[in-house]
Specification:
32% strand; 19 strands; 9-stranded antiparallel beta sheet; alpha+beta; 415 residues
Length: 415
Amino acid sequence: MLTLSTSASAGGLAGAWQGTWTKSGDALRVVVTFQRSGAGYTGTFDSDALQVAEIPFAQVTENSDRVHFALTGDASTIVFDGSQRADAIDGTFVDGAAKGTFHLARTTAAAPLRSRDVTFDNGDVKLAGTLLVPDGAGRHPAIVFLHGSGPEQRFANRWLAQRFARVGFVALIYDKRGAGASTGDWKTADFTELAGDAVAGVRLLRTLPEVDAKRVGISGHSQGGTIAPLVAVRAGDLAFVIASAAGGIDPARMEEYSLGNSIGIAALPTGEATDARAFVHAIVDVAYRGHARSELDALAAKLKGRSWYFDPPPADNFYWAFSRRIASYRPADSWRQVKAPVLVLFGDKDERVPPKSDADAIVQALRAGGNRNVVVKTFPNADHTFALPAANGAWPRHVADYADVMIDWAKHALH
């Protein structure tokens, strides 16, 4: 059982806190929420600047007036340690090699959106999600958010879902198969199966009393945007489709572009760049074109030790089998069949997919199928996640009107 000091127990840790996390002189505004959970606490944080909502902390502990919590990200874990004095928490954090300070003050929690947890099935896979419902009676337009690559859970799309819900959309977010509370395994699925999960979400929305079944759309980023046309064709009669940072060309070509950027080929001297391109091409040949692994292993042994080199995934890594399963996917074949209004979003500095090639391929496919109701929006200086260049050590910043562009377009598409 926790023993709280007089100063900490006066208000307790539970509740909403607003303040800043500061590193390299850059203050990030956040809202942190702690909840009691058994004998301890859980917690989440929101940040409009980072465009995230209800991101869970890995751990929250309190001992007397000392407070500890950690945030596990893709690249590092940020560890916070501070002291609570009545209605304020102050302390320090460590983010890899960077250090910073934080200040939080107790605040009144924002009025929550109506929400409820739901489950729906795609064959023998049970998907678990959350439905965000706007205020007001009657039937509302609705949107399903598709996943990016990896084991993405519902909170990855919660910020956007909240933005849509607050302007009148019912929003469905769910855990990808094999992640969170959903069954199945995304590592052994192909794009058809992942698209089927989203189609099952569309079907769920169309049965709900809060939803206007004729005004249901989808939004997907990265992998979610790449399979968006497949979802649209299988779901049928969608009201709109939003695809951001989506692949529109051969997956193998996209992978070569992504891997080449990840090791900085464009900045290498000519000879090094030639070797690096050969290495990337060999990886993609094995992963997507079925070439023998022995050729890649021989090249890797020759190039190992170069500044840009990385060890290819081991032979039993899921990467190889997953790549082979999606290798034959041609997004244009599905885009040609999409009849709904389409919004395509890219950052012009996208390092994962070639924005101009993909945008051109998507638009050409839609027009070939007779669909000219397409808008392409490219954000200057934005990367694959729509983040903007930041000063060294500063917090990332994202395109400020990213959500507004999506919402305004979707509302217009419904009329």
